[in-house]
Amino acid sequence: MAESAKLEDMKKIILKVVAIWVTGISWPVDTMADQVVKVSSFGYDPVDSTRFIQKTLDSGARKIVLDKQSGPWVTLPLLVRSNTEFLVEPHVELLAKRGEFKGIRDYLFTLDGVTNVTIRGGEGSTFRMWKSDYQKPPYAKSEWRYTLRIIRSENVHVEGMRFIESGGDGIVIAQSKNVTIRNCLCDRNHRQGISLCSGENVLIENTVMSNTSGTAPQAGIDLEPDTPGEKLVNCTLRNCLSENNQGDGFTVYLNSLNEDSSPVSILFENCRSVGNRNAAAVSGGGGREDRFVKGWIRFRGCTFDSPRFHGISVGASPATAFSVSFADCVISNVSPDNATMSDVCFNAPRIRQGFCDGVDLGNLTIFQPIDRPWFTGGKQAIGPSPTQITGTVRVVKPTGKTETTVLDRAWAEKNLPAIHGGKSLSPRRVFPESGQADVTVIDTARGKAVELSPVAILCKAKVIFFAEAPGRVLFTGRQVIAVPGRPAGQKPLTVTAIKQGGGKGRSWKIPNVRDQSTEFSFDAPARGFYRLQFPDEGTRFYLEKSTVPVAVDATSDEHVIAPIQRKTFSLWFDAPAGDTFSFLCRGDSYYRFSVKVFSPDGKLFADQRIVEDIFLIEREKNATGGLWRVDFDRAEKPNYDWIRVDMGGVPGCFFLSPEKRWQIGNGRD
Q1: For 581-633, how does the pLDDT look when each residue is reduced to its tens digit (9 = 90+)?
Q2: Rounded Cα–Cα distance for residues 44 and 55 (Å)
Q3: Cα(109)–Cα(191) distance, rounded to whole angstroms?
Q4: Residue 211 to residues 153, 164, 242, 515: CA-CA distances in angstroms?
Q5: Whether the predicted model's global pTM rises above the 0.70 cut
Q6: Which residue(s) pair with 236 in the sheet?
Q7: Strands 643-648 and 559-563
Q8: Of 271, 338, 407, 408, which one has the greatest count of Cβ atoms within 10 A?
Q9: How far apart are CA 503 and CA 434, in angstroms?
Q10: Is residue 415 scored above 60 in pLDDT?
């Protein structure tokens, strides 16, 4: 027994020696878990304390105190281990080292794959970065330099902290569970105050998200999953303030989820949005026309004050999607200088998506700064009137007069009337449907590059081109930076061969084309159709010249296009004789333009000076086939930019030049 005791004593001595060697201090290893360890016990360097802070975080101590020194704790990126309580004393600042954080994904403080972590502060306890430095050279442009990143973690508690001037978001929560953010401030961040990408059992309480500006979305908080496998389950914001952000106050954007995703459950309770773009914006499927995620989003006792656009904006939420409800909410002082805005906006980001539906406005009170309709929407999607928009809306006019409206099916039929008689459009036709031997190329400048219509392609942009024979195809193009400060995309372009019937064949990569006019080429291995796709990196692409026929590809989906420098531009489409076709376009609820449509004989077929919602023309059993032209220009109202175009009944190929185009089967496919 005596020998055994001596052996145990020797083990303890060895462990203590190891601890001294590893950490440089003499705390016994077997008692570290019970110690309250001050970071200054390891050392302090006013120039760079990274080594001392990280050593403390790696020491195994359960409670770590970032204690007050003569100046801030300057550091490089830090990683936290599980079972750690990180206490930041009042008026103590953890500060990103200036001139560092050059990586586009350099985060100040990261919790990755950990459990049971608490970060707690007091008055003035701060994590801060250098946002203004990151927004200019020599820094590569980025939206991911977060102050606090919580990913793949569980049982996390953050309280009493300030997250200031990040190069991305103040706080990011992704793929995490049982997370509480309480009594915090996220101020002057670059992309969002908080991003909740994916989480389960998340509570954000008594927290302020303010003054976000830099790069879109610039929201106070954005709840936005990245993939269908992510989730937003039992997520609550309570007693939170979102104020003076360049983007929306509260954004819920569920575009990446679908019917196979976990149903969402999101509650905003007693929250305030003040001075943001939209006070509260919910969108469920801007990139799709069906297969929406299920579940619910509820706003309870919230106030939406002084938004620049709308108090409530709900879109991409047809009856088959999740439900949205507002109980005892108040909207006030919406955009007092812009009569085109509204207190509530119902919209459908996709033309064929159907009306926004499944919305209960509860007992909503609106205080209007100017006399105008309290809602907009209803003419942006093809389909019948919504059947599940409910609630009672009490509008207090500037004169003090009160108007009360009960929302029910009769109200919807009157104010959100069926478009196109409630019928669906003719289905899109996959292009091409026949063998390529039937393709006739019409080319008045064969072998030469011609100028293309001055239009930019947006949102996972694609065009189709046809190579008459194997050989080199030449293009000239460039990226268009529409949002100041947004970086040019880095990814390569993709060319994909199109099989008969529209299927995908072999693909090739083309080196990246930046924001200067650049000639690039593709060596077509065979005669046939090819799809050229530009990466969706937040920029637009302007295809300026081509040696082959090229067309905007709306064969399987509508497409978003935009003028170059607000210039007039044209598109051309071929409608074979005998076919029924429909052409439609719209301005995305905010953008407006004028449109003229000319038949193949050059006669003006349709003319609309201001397109605010859907513009639709149909031709049943088109008598004579030929090339139709559509001219787009500015409207009397401003905001000439995004235009959504679609085609039914015939392939949605919108040629960019009448000099180079194709016909299929002698004008028929």
Answers
A1: 889 888 866 688 999 999 999 999 999 998 877 888 888 776 677 899 999 99
A2: 12
A3: 17
A4: 28, 10, 9, 30
A5: yes
A6: 203, 267
A7: antiparallel
A8: 271
A9: 12
A10: yes
